[in-house]
Specification:
The complex is a heterodimer of chains A (187) and B (350). Chain A contains five helices and no strands. Chain A is mostly helical and 187 residues long. Chain A is elongated, with a radius of gyration of 23 Å. Chain A starts with a helix and ends in a 37-residue tail after the last helix. Chain B is an alpha+beta fold and 350 residues long. Chain B folds into two domains: 138 residues, no CATH class; 174 residues, Zincin-like. Chain B contains eleven helices and six strands. A four-stranded mixed beta sheet of chain B has the order 3-4-6-5, sandwiched between helices. In chain B, α6 runs antiparallel to α8 and α8 packs parallel to α11. The chains are: A mainly alpha (187), B alpha+beta (350). At the A-B interface, α1, α3 and α5 of A face α3 of B.
């Protein structure tokens, strides 16, 4: 009888401990995801500024600028309607376009010496870096969350307690971004 | 060893350092009592009226009041608490660090990078400080990640590009994440305290022994005190050196770990390699950083190239492992990463 009670007690303690640690990880994962949203928002706010300040100079890159602006509009729309896949695809297009613009802007002496553009470029690379790091951190913490759910003995109860696998940020296998970006600097 | 074990180890180590330094203080205080204050109170024997009707000398040893010990241990307690709570202020002040201002583009970039690294590591954002010195150096201080500071020299901002600066900040961020800053800051405060108190006790001992008869009579009276006092004096004299060696030894091991975690945070070990190479090339000493906080910096601020030396001298006095070895370890890491993450290398950027 006593033995049974001890076992039941230990089981309840383990259940409590597991549940609490999983809840903690889940919230950290959600928080990391929110952080990505914050950075995306920042990026969306920054793009119109960037475009308006460089478009006078970068006459030969109008279609790149165009592409970024369109992708931004589509990404915002998709995110609002909850189509995360499309939003994600468009964000990738923005990422590519922005890194191209940043690299190309080096070729324009007027832009390079412009203090305002310089600040904008720093702001942009800050946002891009932060976004990348936010995703990296999300992937790390989500992996930890997934491992905690899938390892024995937690795997027996995780789904019963209502925890599910968190998706990681990953580029599709046939995506163009898996190749090294080819930035053509000869103009 | 993962970072959680490292964090636990560092918290334990902080306690251990407290204990070792506390023993230091007690020993210095006890010796001071035993050899000097004890004799001063013994010089004036107390007479007591006993029931047999005449005066009797009451034993001086029963009246022994360990003033020096109490003062020293009290001082140790105060220093460790203030070291833990406000050691970072002391460190920043001694390096003459000031807050980074967002108006200057370079410093704005530094503040941005600190923000980026805090997001990459998932920690609260440390405060960014600038040390007015043209040499290349950086350090982190604070008590916990919630209360942390990263300082870089003006020279570092000047010479390093964005990626290299990012790598250096990531290195400091790892010190914060691993709770190295707590160990280091407390050690810095206590190293200073030990050198202060040993200085005081040597000075006041010189004065009190100058009184002549009382101390000399007590020495002969206590038998074997001569050797003891010699041992104690030597201990007091070398205590500052021992405590500094201790602080340095603590710091050396964790540089490798911080380098590795920095590479893990930025996924870019080669940026840290080129940053370290630039830092190494500038061998002029960092004048703004004094010896007491040498162990906190990313490289030895003395610019003495002692790091490059192997063997006993290097092992005892170098604050950091040889730059050669650090760079080699990072290059190895970059090589391994390029093999395994070839396909995902863009996952971080996208």
């Amino acid at each position: 009888m006593i033995i049974l009670a001890v076992i039941a007690g230990a089981l309840a303690l383990w259940l409590m401990f597991t549940y609490n640690s999983l809840v903690k990880l889940k919230n950290q994962t959600l928080n990391a995801l929110k952080q990505i949203d914050v950075q995306l928002k920042r990026r969306h706010d920054l793009i119109p500024n960037l475009v308006s300040s460089v478009k006078g100079e970068m006459k030969f890159e109008q279609d790149t600028l165009e592409k970024v602006i369109n992708a931004r509009a589509r990404a915002i729309n998709a995110a609002q309607s909850g189509n995360m896949k499309e939003a994600f695809e468009n964000e990738n297009i923005i990422t590519q376009g922005l890194s191209k613009i940043m690299a190309l802007s080096e070729n324009y002496p007027n832009l390079k010496s412009n203090e305002q553009v310089k600040q904008l470029m720093e702001e942009l690379s800050h946002t891009e870096n932060t976004l990348a790091f936010a995703r990296q951190f999300y992937n790390d913490i989500a992996t930890k969350f997934n491992i905690a759910q899938q390892t024995f003995p937690n795997n027996m109860i995780a789904s019963a307690l209502g925890f599910g696998r968190s998706e990681l940020f990953e580029l599709p296998a046939d995506s163009k971004e898996r190749e090294n970006p080819k930035v053509d600097l000869t103009i | 060893m993962n970072i959680y074990e490292q964090q636990e180890k560092n918290k334990r180590l902080t306690i251990f350092i407290f204990a070792v330094f506390f023993v230091f203080f007690i020993l210095i205080g006890l010796g001071f009592d035993y050899f000097y204050l004890g004799t001063v109170s013994g010089a004036k024997p107390k007479y007591k009226w006993n029931e047999n009707g005449y005066y009797e000398v009451s034993g001086t040893s029963s009246q022994f009041f360990p003033l020096g010990t109490i003062l020293a241990s009290g001082f140790a307690l105060v220093m460790s608490f203030s070291g833990a709570l406000s050691g970072h202020k002391m460190v920043l002040r001694s390096a003459m660090a000031r807050r980074a201002v967002e108006l200057s583009p370079k410093e704005k970039q530094f503040v941005n990078i600190v923000k980026e690294m805090s997001i990459a590591s998932g920690l609260p954002q440390p405060q960014a400080y600038i040390v007015p010195d043209s040499d290349l150096n950086a350090f982190a201080t604070g008590f916990s990640p919630e209360n942390s500071y990263i300082a870089v020299t003006e020279g570092l901002l000047e010479k390093l590009n964005r990626e290299e600066l990012q790598a250096v900040v990531a290195h400091e961020m790892s010190h914060i994440r691993n709770y190295d800053i707590r160990v280091m800051t407390v050690a810095a405060a206590l190293v200073n305290a030990v050198s202060l108190i040993s200085d005081w006790s040597v000075r006041s001992a010189r004065y009190s022994s100058g009184r002549g008869y009382s101390s000399s009579s007590s020495r002969s009276g206590r038998g074997g005190g001569g050797i003891l006092i010699l041992v104690w004096l030597i201990f007091v004299l070398v205590a500052p050196i021992i405590s500094r060696i201790l602080a340095l030894a603590i710091s050396r091991q964790r540089e490798y770990l911080a380098d590795a975690s920095a590479a893990e945070l930025t996924r870019n070990p080669l940026a840290l390699v080129s940053a370290l190479e630039k830092i190494r090339m500038s061998v002029e000493p960092t004048y703004a950083v004094n010896n007491g906080i040498a162990h906190m910096c990313i490289t030895d601020p003395r610019g003495s190239l002692i790091e490059e030396r192997e063997g006993l001298v290097g092992d005892l006095f170098a604050t950091h492992p040889p730059m050669e070895k650090r760079i080699l370890a990072l290059k190895l890491m970059a090589y391994q990463m390029s093999g395994q993450t070839r396909s995902q290398s863009l996952g971080g950027i996208a």
